[in-house]
Each structure stands twice: as structure tokens, then as C-alpha cells.
Amino acid sequence: MKTLLLLPGDGIGPEVTAEVRRVVAWLADHAGLRLEVAEAAFGGASIDAHGVPLTDAARDAALASDAVLMGAVGGPRWSGVARAIRPEAGLLGLRTAMQVFANLRPVQCFDALIDASTLKPEVVRGLDIMIVRELTGGVYFGQPKGIETLPDGSRRGIDTQVYTTAEIERVARTAFDLARRRGNRVCSAEKSNVMDSGLLWREVVTDLHARDYADVALSHMLADNVAMQLVHNPRQFDVLLTDNLFGDILSDEAGMLSGSIGMLASAALGAPGTPGLYEPIHGSAPDIAGKGVANPLAAIMSLAMALQLSLDEADLAARLVAAVSAALDGGARTRDLGGTIGTREMGDAVIAALAAG
Ligand code: IPM
Ligand code: MG
After folding, report:
1. Least C-beta-crowded within 10 Å: which of 59, 104, 149, 207?
2. Do 74 and 122 belong together in one domain?
3. pTM of the predicted model, to two decimals?
4. Where does a domain end: 258, 276, 295?
5. Residues with active-site annotation
6. 8 Å CB contact between 99 and 276
7. Relative to the CA of 244, which ligand 1 atom is closest?
């Protein structure tokens, strides 16, 4: 039997993962899903319970699972903890331990949500972008890093953007392989006009394309221009390949195209056969945590990605996505989508749609 490790984490994480649990239970009872679900403390919740954001036991459980689905980490409650053990460090540590270098962040606009987007309907209708974000390298991890005090008493903060050929090539391969199963186009984003790591990025992607993926249409765009094009004409993109930091920023921006960042799921994948890490990209949203109003659809869609990519259940994944779409067609709207229903009711709406489908 396959295993799924749930890491509810902080803020709205426990609320949205509770709905994932209910969907899994429904699929087990009614659709033949055989999946063992375990849970571990993570992020701030783990700091409170164990003093660190990711215990060795939780990390080992993640590595031994077929898929890991997390809620969110972080919040003001832990703003005072040492940086090395802050909740976000737990997430970065987990990504590193799992070696999930390719972060897939699909951006689609469900027809029912066209009016929930802040962009005009004609700009977002039919949108289907796959952001492929490098996840285990770049400025998030580069050394040296830190804040130092200079001889004159002033301070200096340092982060290092660094990429090797191998790191660029493996994530670019993921992007090209995905493109072949979609619109066959990859746009690679970097700042090769100012950054040497960006120049290397462009060269490595160009070389790999010429060597192994000449059938895929490849374009290069500076990351700041991508930020503009995403709100100007987002449908020009099919697969958007970029580094860790630009991918973090551009995926939040793209989130608004789909109506709400509460809709965006993600999958982080490593080498074939290793467990995937699935996360809603919305974060812990401390302002609405514990109120039962968060949108659980990003977490539920992350479960759909896990079913498809790590759990050998592509049919159930498609059924779950269809149920989410049907729930939205039926008018289910949490507050972020301009409605009034709560987290639990949105879970109910998806489960009702599963039952009806
Ligand atoms: C994300 C988040 C994380 C990131 C934070 C919580 C460390 O913003 O997954 O997009 O920056 O990668
Ligand atoms: Mg982010």
C-alpha cells in the first residue's frame, strides 16, 4: 500500500490539510483508494513540540513515504526564533533532504472563476501555464550567506546566487519533458543581462535544447519582463522555466491570474522513484488562521497532483480535479473567491461533487 505523510504545519495549514484528509477518506471508502496516511508536526508546530521545525523522525518518515503533503509553515508567533530553526528553515531542510529540485506550479483559470481574477476575463480565459521552479539551489542555499559586522561597526547582509551546470540541466530537462506533453513550448526566465549565474542558465538551457529537445519551441525572456508579460498577456506562456527566487516571486504573481492564490497547488519532484513533496503555494495566512475561512482547494488540488505523480492514481486525480471544477461551477466560493462559505463547507462541496460524479 502507498503511503502519504501529511505535514499540516502552521496558520491555515491544519485547516486545509484536514479537508485533504476528508477527501482521502472519501476516496478510500467510495473509490477504491488504498492509501495509508500518517501525520507529523512540522514548522512552527514542530518548534513548539520538539524545539526544531523538522525533526529527524519527520524527515525520515517523509523519505520513507511515497508522497508528502504539507499545509503551510511560519507565522508571527515564531518571528523571534533563531534563523537556523525558524519554520521556513524546516521547509528548506525538507526540500533539501528530499532533493526535490523541480517545483511544478500549474496556473489555470477555472471557467467558473474568471470573474474572481483581478484581470479582465479575456486576458485569463483558458489560461494554462506550468511554472517549473528550481527548488533546491540558487540564492536560497548559496554560500556565503549571513549578516556580518564590518570593522566600522556597520553591518552587511550577504546571500549568494549560485547554480551549477548540473543543477540547471536537470530542472530544464523536467521543463522540456513536461512541455512535450502539453503545448510543446518552454520559456526560460533569468537575468542574463546582469547576473553571471543567469548567463550560465541561458547557455545551459540553450545547449540542452539543441542536444536533446530541438523539437520543443524554446524562448528566453528576462525575468522582469516575464513579470510584466504575466499580467499583460499570460496566455503566451506554456511551460515557464526559472530559478528558485524568480520562481517564488513569479508564481505568487501568476497565482492571482487564477482568481486567488488559494487555488494554486504545487508538486516538488526529485529523481524518478523518489517521493514527491506537494504543497499549496498560499502560505500560512496568519491573518485568517483558525477562523475556518481558508480556501482548501489549493491543498485538495495538491492531493490531486500527488495522486497523479506519486501515487499511481491518475484516474482518481482526474476525478478529483473534475469534482473541484464541479464544486466551483455549482457556486461554492470561499471568501478569497468572493463568497461566504468556510473551509469545511468547501470540503463538503468537493466531496458532494465526487459523490455526484
Ligand atoms: C513558497 C514559499 C516558501 C519559499 C517560503 C515559505 C520559504 O514562499 O513555497 O513559495 O520561499 O519557497
Ligand atoms: Mg512563495
Report:
1. 149
2. no
3. 0.95
4. 258
5. 140, 191, 224, 248, 252
6. no
7. 12
